[in-house]
Amino acid sequence: MFKKVLIANRGEIALRILRAARELGVRVVVAHSKADADSLPVLLADEAICIGPASPAASYLNIPNILSAAIISGADAIHPGYGFLAENAQFAEMIAEHGITFIGPTPENMRMLGDKATARRIAREAGVPVVPGTDALESPAEALAAAEEIGYPVILKASAGGGGRGMRLVHGPEDLENAVMQAQEEAKAAFGNPEIYLEKYIEEPKHVEVQVLGDGERVVHLWERDCSIQRRHQKLLEEAPSILADEVRRGLTAAAVKLAAHIGYRSAGTLEFLVDRDGNYYFIEMNTRIQVEHPVTELITGVDLVAEQFRIAAGEGLRLRQEEIESRGHAIEVRVNAEDPEHDFRPSIGKVETVLWPGGTGVRVDSHVYAGYEIPSHYDSLIAKIIVWAEDRPAAIRRMKRALGETVIDGPGLKTTIPFHKKVLENAFFRRGAIYTNFIARRMSE
Ligand code: ADP
Fold it and tell me: Are 84 and 214 within one domain?
């Protein structure tokens, strides 16, 4: 096992990684921006090194500074968390040249799957169904021909896209040519790469994703998560297991393992699928990192995914055998964002004066927030994840309502998404499990 890990991230995920490292007996260096000097992971770390000013480009994406921090502190591994450098193959290669282990997939894994158009091609190669669509588009004419064949509506996506951005819905041929040009420009501006492709737009799908772990030789799945509760393609609430027929679940998990094994995947990864009303499933992309919503899987399987990432990166191999990985009960996670749901979810930053986290059986809180903490304005708005486990879905919903009822996060002008989550939990469609990616737009719009 490693002696010292440098965490190149912030917020709740930095704390999550710190906790796993500590239990494994690994010393922790937290690399942080100036704006995060008072954050909880920094306060709890064995060592903390400031890597630059608040702006992510100058700190959490600043490869030379992060590498120097790792070298100076004598870290033998770096955990990138999610976002920032987590899926940057070049970063992984650079640190390896300095004898430092990247806790994550191989650079080849990241290159093959980081680009969505390439990932689609690899999935087809592996015999995994993808949404009907194209490879990278060369021209608007090609898009028109493809859309004609597939049928409208279609969705244009940036090959380098992520985080729910860089997608454009097109309803008919009259809009397509313009949309292609705009999508290319947007993709270039947002991701530095104008490449786009086209997919059939699946109406009212469920977003179901499969958690896998691989060690380069063997891959296992840890069941699936339903992440259909989304606003503008951003996940807000996740649960496991998903509400699917068993044969669909079997098909999905087997397809995920097949694809990950096909590329000799190493570390934790997630294969995302859309499932249509008829139970057909289509691969959409793979996230080659630990994900925000990983705790729901930890609660139904009892596996510490971050600790497994450490063990695999340290060369201890994959300890789990597929038959040992059981799914028990039901878990739900809500993302508590510092946003005002009453005003179009606009960011609501400020100082947190009072915090009271929920507790009791089956409740987990992953948060870097404490009383007196000032939420910086430079980063994403996630301030906590509240996750519950119970024996079945109705009990998990009751437990989450109870937990949110106990939670207090207060400060001058501070708003969070908790009231919104309470409404979701009361919604009859949600309770019945009638959840699709348009749930919020359709059922929560008033
Ligand atoms: P990102 O990488 O930006 O998260 P994804 O490809 O994972 O993008 O898609 C995010 C979400 O967008 C999906 O969960 C789904 O709600 C919606 N979406 C993506 N592709 C399609 C599609 N072909 N049809 C319908 N909805 C889609």
Answer: no
pLDDT score of 446: 60
Q: Tell me, what DSSP letter sits at residue 444? A: S
Using CA positions, which residue lies closest to atom 19 of ligand 1?
284
**Residue 34 alpha carbon to ligand 1 centre in Å:** 34
**Using one digit for the tens of pLDDT, what is the confidence trace for 70-126?**
999 999 999 999 999 999 999 999 999 999 999 999 999 999 998 899 999 999 999
Q: How far is Cα 184 from Cα 392, in angstroms, rounded to an integer?
A: 45
If asked whether residues 174 and 244 sit together in one domain, one would say no
Q: Say if residues 221 and 322 touch (Cβ distance below 8 Å).
A: yes
Q: What is the pLDDT of residues 45-77, one digit of tens each?
A: 999 999 999 999 999 999 999 999 999 999 999
Domain count, the chain: 3
| Shared-domain flag, residues 83 and 60 | yes
Alpha-carbon separation of residue 402 from 283, 360, 392, 396, 399 (angstroms): 35, 10, 15, 10, 5
Which atom of ligand 1 is nearest to 133's Cα?
A: 23
Q: Ligand 1 centre from 333 Cα, in Å?
A: 20
289 is catalytic: yes
